[in-house]
């Protein structure tokens, strides 16, 4: 059993150095306390919602540590892509011109992995963003993300269930939760803007879920 565990978790030497460096960061155990944990809140803007056909146009992320949003330690990249959906461009405004300095998909993934390392990832409706990242990694022969993931949509429901102020079947949008918490929606539909709104929501959720200073990371995953 132990031999199988080491074989499964041993960094693959056939993968690029940047991936091996990312994988090596998971040798460090995550802290037990939420207050000691490094979270990365992220968002993607894409050409659409088809995992097979659509592509990532931008990734935005922010670090949350010691229950504080580290604005100065932010992450944002714009990707060179040949596929564009006119309808989604109307929403996020990322178009094929020189307004944004763009990099290749592989370079963006390298930078993103270097930024997140073994952090706990936070996203709203996280399944979509994580799958888009994983599909991009797969196109370059790389494994899926190794990070633990938390979804603010699910955490929001867990704060409301006790008071019966929730529709259990409803999929709450970022706008709806932001409005419930009186969070300004400035810079909406940009990856960095949505990541910041999600980070603010996460801070609100933390204050409701962690009633004592020793609130543990594993308690967040019970919700």
Write structural notes for this entry:
- One of its GO terms (molecular function) is DNA binding.
- Keywords: Exonuclease, Hydrolase, Nuclease.
- One of its GO terms (biological process) is DNA replication.
- InterPro entries: DnaQ, Ribonucl_H, RNaseH-like_sf, RNaseH_sf.
- This protein is an alpha/beta fold and about 220 residues long.
- The protein has one domain: 2-Layer Sandwich (Nucleotidyltransferase, domain 5).
- Helices cover about 40% and strands about 20% of the residues.
- The chain contains nine helices and six strands; from the N terminus they run H-H-E-E-E-H-E-H-E-H-E-H-H-H-H.
- Helix 2 runs parallel beside helix 4.
- The longest helix is centred in the last third of the chain and has 19 residues.
